[in-house]
Write a structure and sequence with these properties.
single chain, 68 residues, 0% strand
């Protein structure tokens, strides 16, 4: 489930950047900048969960599987 959420978050970040480019070309600079900032925050969150630490284990790998 976590992989699905992280994948959707990555897709949302790419969509935010694409939307920001469109808004930037239309002259709506403030909202475009905020969309890029939100995309960066989303990408940083994905990086926090997936980049391994010095021990070589990512936080997402340490999650316990949910009981079914």
């Amino acid at each position: 489930m976590t992989n699905l959420v992280l994948s959707i978050l990555m897709l949302a970040a790419f969509a935010l950047v694409a939307g920001a480019v469109v808004l930037w070309r239309r002259g709506v600079r403030k909202q475009a900048g905020l969309m890029v900032l939100l995309a960066l925050v989303a990408l940083l969150n994905v990086a926090i969960w997936t980049v391994p630490d010095t021990g070589g284990q990512a936080p997402v790998d340490r999650l316990q599987p949910a009981d079914r």
